[in-house]
Amino acid sequence: MGGAARPGPPVGAAARPGPPFGGAARPGPLPDIGDDAARHPAVDAAVQAMANAATLAPADQIAQYEAAYETLRETLATIDQT
Questions:
Q1: Of 19, 64, 65, 79, which one has the greatest count of Cβ atoms within 10 A?
Q2: What mean pLDDT is reported for the chain?
């Protein structure tokens, strides 16, 4: 066998703390950025949906990320038109 690279951390590296993929992560509320005038409800909802996806199975996460991407894409296109 050759010396093919393996994905992942180097051998002997410490594991990252926290739940594994699909684990029971508990997303919190969106951080307070202080400037309510700069916020956009659709963007906030998309970001919250991505945070909530961490509690789903990987297959279900993909659908959430795709939906959030579409919301962000449409929102940015609308902003560019104004």
A1: 64
A2: 72
